[in-house]
Amino acid sequence: MPAVNVSGGESLATTNEMLPGQRFGTKGNEGLKTGYAKNAGYCFTGVTVIDGRRYIKVVMGSATDEGRFEETQKLLDYAQEIADS
């Protein structure tokens, strides 16, 4: 499980790959929540601010832990395309 540095030099073990410094970490991420339930699969909910606009991302039903972050990244890429146009 990756570790994320928090204030005071401590490290926090996390499975949330959207946090800063993690593989899918994105500038502007504000609120993040991962989850898993048998009926819902791997899920992710978060908020990202891009160019002053707040984007709410919700991914449910992913078959894998990594898949929820890949799908979230696709949503962010799409949001960036819209913001750039």
Automatic annotation (TrEMBL):
Residues 25-63 form the Peptidase S11 D-alanyl-D-alanine carboxypeptidase A N-terminal domain. Residues 1-25 are annotated as: Disordered. Gene3D superfamilies: DD-peptidase/beta-lactamase superfamily (3.40.710.10). It comes from Cohnella suwonensis. Pfam families: Peptidase_S11 (PF00768). Coiled coil: none annotated. InterPro entries: Beta-lactam/transpept-like, Peptidase_S11_N. This is Peptidase S11 D-alanyl-D-alanine carboxypeptidase A N-terminal domain-containing protein.
